[in-house]
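Translate sequence into structure tokens.
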Amino acid sequence: MDQNITFIGGGNMAQALISGMIARGLPATRITVSDPVPEIQEILRQQDINVTDNNAEAIANADVVVVAVKPQMLADVLTPLADLMTNQLVISIAAGATIGIFKSLLGGYDRIIRVMPNTPALVQSGAHGLYAPDYIGQADRDVASQIMAATGLTIWVDSEKKIDAVTAVSGSGPAYFFYMMEAMIQAGKNLGLDEKTASALTLQTALGAAQMAITSENTPAQLRRNVTSPNGTTQAAIETFDHHQVSQHIQAALAAAEKRSATLAEELAEKLNTK
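Result follows.
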């Protein structure tokens, strides 16, 4: 990758992407970050990254602009840049902000790709859903894939509506696994283990199960069947899950997350359009 990349917003997700790209060989001098927070600026300067608090200055020589600010800040950040967009590829990692919102705030500028990242990107184990309108060329898609792949898996979806589903599955997904870990740790304590032991066993088991699922040719359903001996301990636990309809409740929870994602996008659009 030989593009100049500017990040507007230098928070945790931006820093994770920057670290990943540098680790993959992108020179730090190719990266510019615009952020008003002095502490963030200092962290980035120590990595030889170009730093400013002037967004217009930051995008002047950029080939790619990654917008990594909170959704409620988008109007203040993007509107002043509308007349300055020439031919930059804009990549949004702002939650809930549709491409329509970006186009509106950027005065109709439409070379935009939308990404829904997730927090395991902070440890280079992210799962990112990407969407681009049909008119976005393959070269731009490849650039977006390369940037996001610096911190994990990249999956393209063929409609922007599916970004809400991505949000429900992977965007919010880490919290579901943390929730399961919490419950297992508490169960271990209930059964007589101390917290340190219950936590260590739970976290390593989660890691091991994920590694098995990723590397195995079998589906998670088959892997579960493989370790569920007839009339054994695992079957006793799974039957309890089924009795309480745990699978159905998980599916209902993700449907609620997907619905909320769509609603938040609508609310954000209304808020920004009336500003």
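Note: Residues 95 and 154 are 16 Å apart (CA to CA).
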